[in-house]
Every structure is written in C-alpha cells, then in structure tokens.
Amino acid sequence: MTFHLLNIAIVVVLSLIGIGLYGLMIARNLIKVVVGLQIATKGAILAFVLAGRLASQVDVGQSLALTVIVADTIVAVVALALAVQVRQKFGTLNIEALKTLRR
Amino acid sequence: MINFLIAVGILTCALLAIRENRLLISALWLALTSALVAFLMYQLGAAEVGAVELSVGAGLVTVLFVFAINITGGDEIEGRIPIPRPAAWIVVVVTLLLLSWMILPSLQLERYFHTLARQVEIAGLFRSILWGDRQVDILLQIVLIFAGVLAVLGLIGDIHEKEKEKGK
C-alpha cells in the first residue's frame, strides 16, 4: 500500500471512527462524550467525501457530507445544552450521576 | 508526503483530544482535528465541504464547547471508567474489522486502482446537486437547525427561569 491520497484517506476514516468510538466508551465526563462523538462523525463525513471521490461523483458526496455536518452540529449543540442542564441539576458532569435516570 | 503528514496530524490531534483530561485543551485539540480534516477534504477535491467543515467544525463547534465548559466549570472527573479499557479495545477492534470487511470488498478493486491511477476532473456541479437533486436534504437541514435552536432555547431558558426564581 503506497502513500496515495485515497489510501491515506481510508486509513484516516477507519482510525477516526475507532478513536471516536473508544473515546465514547471510556469517557466519564459528559462533554468528553460529545468530543468522542464529534471525532467519530468526522470519520463518517470524510467517508462520504472519499466515497464520492472514488465514484467520481465528488459533488454528490459533498452534498451528503454537508447534511451530516449540519446534523452533527445540531447534535453537539443539544448535547452541550443537556450537559449544562445536568451540571445545574446534579452538580457534576459525571455520567455515573445519570444512573438515577433509571429509576 | 504532505497528505501523509496531515493524516498523522489528524490522528495525533484526535488521540490527544480523547486523552486530555482538561476539557478546554481537549476542545482545542478537537478544533485542530477539524481544521486538518478540512484540509484533507480539500485535497480530496471537496473544497466546498472543506470550507464548511473549517468554519462549522473548527469554528462554531469550538465556540459552543468553550461556552459550555465556561458555564459548567469544566471540572476534571476522577473515578472508574464506565467500560473497562480492555473491553473498549475489543469493541473498537471488532468494529473496525467489521467496517473493513464491509468497505474494502465494495471498493471494487479494479475501479479503485483505476481511480488511483488517474486524476479525476472535479466538475463544479455542487450547487446544482445541492439545490436541484437534494432539495429534501436542504429542507431537512433547515428543520434540523430550527429544532436545534428551539431545543437550546428550551434548555437554556429553563436555567434562566430557575435563577430568577432563586433571586426572588
């Protein structure tokens, strides 16, 4: 495998998804959960662009990637607002505190 | 070579964003990851989305993170990790193997190597595809943005009301 742009992009896509997933699972802090989610989503966005490039339809890939960027930003906004609420209600951002939601 | 360096930079910044305990520094590493991902998108021929990623991913989202960290205080949290690290590693490895198993055969290797061999002409059709073929997507995005704004207003507005009640 040579250092061609497309090879590199495939490795970056898979690695970003892996790092984001790992971050999601080991995060104790609600805001760190959002960071992990953002990293995994960046891998997905890059995957759309890469798929478009491989199919010689970069513009279709771009339009799909744009949709994901908008959705991802809204998710981040709402998740951060929820984190603020949790901090106000429980006094901590520790996700262990949210276990009370089970009851 | 520059693409290889960008890829190394992206992965380093992403790892540091995950590993850093101080939230503000973590948000800054995330912003740098976004900026480098935007540059890789530009290299792939997706200049428009690269610009959006740079302004939204590295700009707006970072501002939102700083805003949220500022309000919440950004305390470091000690204690046990929700999922043990070995289990998390196993899940990540299995997921990546499954992804590779699904993605790599679908690349249609002959076509892939053909794409590697030639320079693709990037047609400027983005505008017509976005506003012509994908109108539903645009409508969905507008609805999403309004839903997000309303959700944040509901959540943040609730805090202000409680603070006012406390003040009384």
Brief description of this entry?
With 103 residues, chain A is an all-alpha fold.
Give a structural overview.
- Chain A is mostly helical.
- Chain A has helices at residues 5-26, 30-54, 58-90.
- Chain A is elongated, with a radius of gyration of 17 Å.
- The mean pLDDT of chain B is 81.
- Chain B has helices at 2-19, 23-43, 47-72, 85-106, 109-117, 126-133, 135-167.
- With 168 residues, chain B is an all-alpha fold.
- Chain B is 82% helix and 0% strand.
- Chains A and B meet through α1, α2 and α3 of A and α1, α2, α3, α4 and α5 of B.
Can you give the mean pLDDT of chain A?
Answer: 86
* Structural class based on helices, strands and sheet pairing of chain B: mainly alpha
Kindly estimate the percentage of residues of chain B that lie in beta strands according to DSSP: under 5%
Order of helices and strands of chain B: HHHHHHH
Summarize the helix and strand pattern of chain A as letters: HHH
Morphology of chain B: extended
Number of helices of chain B: 7
Tags for this model:
heterodimer; A: 103 residues; mainly alpha; Helix Hairpins; 3 helices; 78% helix; B: 168 residues; 7 helices; 82% helix
Element layout with pairings:
The complex is a heterodimer of chains A (103) and B (168).
Chain A: H1 5-26, H2 30-54, H3 58-90
Helix pairs in contact in A: 1-2, 2-3
Chain B: H1 2-19, H2 23-43, H3 47-72, H4 85-106, H5 109-117, H6 126-133, H7 135-167
Helix pairs in contact in B: 1-2, 2-3, 6-7
